[in-house]
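Lecture 7, part 2: worked example. A protein chain together with flavin mononucleotide.
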Amino acid sequence: MTTLSAGGRDRLRFGIFMPTVSNSPNISHYKADQADWTFAANRAIGLAAEEVGFDFLFPVSRWRTIGGDIDYHGKSLETMTWAAAMLASTSRIQIFSTVHVPAFNPVVAAKMGASLDHIGNGRWGINIVSGWNRSEFDMMGIEMLEHGKRYQRSEDFIKILKGLWTAPPGSFNFESEHYTVRGGYVMPQPSARPHPTIVNAGTSNDAREMVARQCDWAFVCPVSMDDAQDLAADFKARAQGYGRSVRLVCMVLPVWAATRAEAEAERARVVEQMDAVAVRNWADGVGLESGSFSQQTLETFAFGAGSLPLLGTADEVAEQIAELYRRGMDGVLMSYMDYLGDTRRFGQDIVPRLRAMGVV
Ligand SMILES: Cc1cc2nc3c(=O)[nH]c(=O)nc-3n(C[C@H](O)[C@H](O)[C@H](O)COP(=O)(O)O)c2cc1C
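Predicted complex, written out as structure tokens:
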């Protein structure tokens, strides 16, 4: 795919929010798939995505079940090891890992990241999660810090990654309330320059400030087109305030069918058959501990765990993606009702329409 020149902007990037966890993407009994998380399934989706020309694959990182009748996220693949195998299975697409800051020593994460970069010839990136899911950290005996401190620690974590990846090996030192690194040494350093892509996916004020200062991309889940526009404008203005630029990716769940009514009926079935216990557990977890989901409802969590629904015919869905691009989004992160089938269908039905509109 070529770079878009219109308005001086890059073309829209598109990626898949991969089913590294069981029962993606909906918190519902409807079409619940217990076997979607397997590496074989992920590999097949990744290869299909690469063939279609997708830009990136993004995992979900989970350490324990969210519960409910469907055992939401009950099984999952750890995403550093997942990325290693996915990078070895593909040749062009960018692949991310998601790291929970409290669970990793930053020197170990930097070493693993450098190794992944070399396995994938510069195609690896990292998503930094500060930690919001109390049950995961209780299980590890790790105390959760208050929200602002979590982000201070995450920012330190990113500074250490960058230092270890770019300073002369053995020369990097860091001292803060959260970390001490002396004579930091990672060799080989990553081949991606200046360093592998660094992403965050929080929208709280603390997250926005950290992204503005440290990250390359922000992944967000707006509840409407207007919200998407506001988020893009705010993140970009904050980054500009620090003399930086940041790109925005919108989390969406596209469903396209012969008629708009058919696509809407599919979403209605997901919502009608929501797993009430799992959706409540999810809402309590992200609602209590995160500053990023204040506008979501049980219904919007049930369908795509908070993704923005894009519903309609192929023309209408392509137009909604183009609209997100016009409103300042630089990429879309897609979950699918049928991952493998919809990855291929997206290539057939939607990509040519986006190309005709000059978006990709
Ligand atoms: C696209 C996207 C992907 C995310 N992936 C994960 C994940 O894999 N694991 C996780 O624990 N949290 C994940 N999150 C949660 C956020 O990183 C963030 O920590 C959470 O929304 C709490 O918000 P806050 O940190 O701003 O309070 C994701 C969020 C988004 C929007």
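The chain has one domain: 12-354. Confidence is low (pLDDT under 50) at residues 1-6. Keep this in mind for problem set question 3.
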